[in-house]
Queue: 2 jobs
Job 1
Amino acid sequence: MTASGSGGEGLAVTLRQQRPMPLDLAFDCAPGEVVALFGPSGSGKTTTLRAIAGLHRPEHGRIRCGSELWLDVEQGVEVPPHRRAVGMVFQDYALFPHMTVLGNVLAAMGHRPRREREMRARELLALVHLEEHAGRRPGGLSGGQRQRVAVARALAHDPAALLLDEPFAAVDRAMRVGLYGELESLRRSVRAPIVLVTHDFDEVARLADRIVLLERGRLVVQGPVTEITNRMDLTHFGMQYDPGSLLDARIEAHDVERQLTRLVFDGGVLWAPLLDAPADLRLRIRIAAREVSLARRAPEEISLHNVLSATVSTITPAADPALVLVGLQTGGARLLAQVTRDAVSRLAIAPGTPLFALIKSVAVLRPGSGLHT
């Protein structure tokens, strides 16, 4: 029987154990939010997901989803997996090969009337753009299509929480890009908290609102992705495989004649190559530190479209001893530039120095795509 929780919305997780592997963490995930569990193999990501789903019982812990208490070890509360309103997507799809696409989704709907179940199943297939494949079997679908069936099935019983365990690991990079877009569209239609387990930092940068960074079962740090991933003290976790900045932006306007799109963010305005996307769309962009040049004075008559006023906040050694990483504050946003030690000396750069950050429009990228925004 589901025990009554303390109220509130979203998912709240606290787990502690020593065996079979150490685990000590706590995090929340709000409705409609994507929280990524990120860390090396053996850090406890999948174990945490299994505990939320009721497939693993920790030595100590408490899990609440909305007003329902799913687990409280100290109080003796443990709701079984089939009574937890969880939708789970695995990397290997876990579809029934003998059933059609529609049948796989229907199988997850329990004991609703057949007509009601079929109507809802077709709505979900339309949501993941597979309505035309309802009568096909999984073996005749591409990897990306099979994963979209798995997502539709996970949503079939209107879950209170959606858990994604390495959902894109079984498809190639090109197919992942399309699935990223599918998930971005899907989350606008789903108000459940979404917990994403991944080894791929591109997925974190592209999809997550917040990140929970784990190492050997221990919570290292958690917070907004755009803040945590810009920290230069986390390089050994793969957070800065190529140092750069993550920024949340909004499409303000398109200039078709100049083939440019104007983006606004907390630090001002950025120009990018023309986007095939509607105005007001919110998106995340990434600017590699090596693509940011610095100047003491605002340059004139140059080909670069983006010139931002900034102030130096930090100077940190880079992996290459000839280079340094310069942290910049521009408005409410933080940028990262990678320049030579000689440049720091010639420009007399120090914390507090006012500068101009120069960025090519073609350097404005969407994480995970390898393509311009």
Note: The chain has eight helices and 21 strands.
Job 2
Amino acid sequence: MMWATNNMQEYKILKMNDFSNHQISRVRMLEQLCKDFDGSSLRVGIESLKENGGDKAFLCQMGNQLIGYLSWYTSDEIEANINAMVHPDYRRQGVFRSLMNKAAAEMQIQGIKTCRIRIPSNSKPGIDCVKHLGANFNTSEFTMHLVQFRSDMLHHSGLVLRLEEAQDFDFMVKCSSQAFGDSESWTRNYFKHTREPERVTYLAVDRLTPVGMVRVNHVHTDTAVIHDFCVHPLYQGRGYGREILARVVNILLAKQYTQIRLGVVTQNKRALNLYRSIGFEISAESHYYVSAIHHFND
């Protein structure tokens, strides 16, 4: 626990260990308050808060009132991805910095070097805050939700989408690293650290030849996030991408998922057009800012 003073009052920073419905609802209420006050598309990943295997989180409390929140996770043990928010009445008073200091100490123990902070593009207070703390802009990403599925996009009769098998790992590494431009060693490490019961990988196979892959994170009973979607460079430009995406959406709809979303870098117009052709529409834009963890040492 960490204590800090705020205009002669004390607030405390606590590790979130209680994942009851009551505690989750407190976080959700703060998220809604911040969204309404800022007129932003804030989303702090509440669906990833759970006792086992979920995001790590810290709470800032003033008495019994929740005034700040920060959660983080890492996919590669090198960089931490961060979501955070501060009650409008307690901003510019060191709350986010205190949360960050506490989280950074935990991250350093795990060997994490950098952090990547997600801020809604329409949250001026959030952007001003991270800039003030010295974080640097890295990239922008659209969140897209399925609005109306275009089932007429299913064409390739020879294409099969099947669950990942042990012998597929090398293809997954090569396909992903070549499609996204990451090293094979980083990609191998990333896949090893993102193996979870709720995360499913599908291989796209055309007449026994693997051509691409897509992963789905089942974050809630009604919510699925499509990610790590790629076609091996050897097979790009043949319509496989649209077919793979349409098929995985078809699978999710058959399983009664009502919230299906994915993310795309704002500059990737080709992918943006592909997702729109299936029935996805932009619902939010996020800016990502990066900083070295040691920048937040007390």
Note: The mean pLDDT is 92.
